[in-house]
C-alpha cells in the first residue's frame, strides 16, 4: 500500500511515539568539556556532526562545541523539558 510503513519500522515525527531531542554542548577546550560529552554519551545521546572550535580573544581560550541528539520513545515534547536531565 503506498505510504504505508512496515510493521516494526521506527517512525518519527509529530504523530508518533518517538521524541527527538537536540542539544549543543559548549565549553572551554579542557577535560571538563570532554567529561560533559562523555556523560551525555553514556546517557544515550549520540554525536551529531563534527565538533566545532572557536577562539575567544578576550579570555584567550579555545571554546569547543558539539551537537548531540537522542530519541526517546513514549514521551511527548514540551518546551519546558529540561534537556540536560534526559
Task: Write a compact overview of the structure shown.
The chain is mainly β and 86 residues long. It is built from 1 helix and 3 strands. 14% of the residues lie in helices and 41% in strands.
Helices and strands in order, then pairings?
Elements: E1 18-28, H1 31-42, E2 46-56, E3 61-73
Antiparallel strand pairs: 1-3, 2-3
Task: Describe what you observe in this structure.
The protein is mainly beta and 86 residues long. Helices cover 14% and strands 41% of the residues. It is built from one helix and three strands. A three-stranded antiparallel sheet has the order 1-3-2, with helices on one face. A hairpin with a 4-residue loop joins strand 2 (46-56) and strand 3. The termini are far apart.
Key terms:
86 residues, mainly beta, three-stranded antiparallel β-sheet, 3 strands, 41% strand, disordered N terminus
Q: How many angstroms does the end-to-end distance come to?
A: 37 Å
Strand content: 35-45%
Structural class: mainly beta
Mean pLDDT: 86
Which spans of ≥5 residues are poorly predicted at pLDDT below 50? 1-12
Summed up, the helix count is 1
The geometry reads as elongated
Largest sheet: 3 strands, antiparallel
Oligomer: single chain
Gyration radius over CA: 17 Å
> In which range does the helix fraction lie?
10-25%
Strand order of the largest sheet: 1-3-2
Give, in order, the helices and strands. Answer: EHEE
Total count of strands: 3
Amino acid at each position: 500500500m503506498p505510504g504505508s510503513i512496515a510493521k516494526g519500522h521506527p517512525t518519527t515525527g509529530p504523530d508518533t511515539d518517538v521524541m527527538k531531542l537536540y542539544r549543543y554542548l559548549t565549553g572551554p577546550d579542557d577535560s571538563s568539556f570532554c567529561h560533559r560529552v562523555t556523560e551525555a554519551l553514556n546517557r544515550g545521546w549520540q554525536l551529531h556532526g563534527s565538533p566545532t572550535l572557536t577562539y575567544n580573544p578576550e579570555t584567550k581560550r579555545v571554546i569547543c562545541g558539539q551537537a548531540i541528539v537522542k530519541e526517546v520513545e513514549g514521551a511527548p515534547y514540551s518546551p519546558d523539558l529540561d534537556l540536560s536531565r534526559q
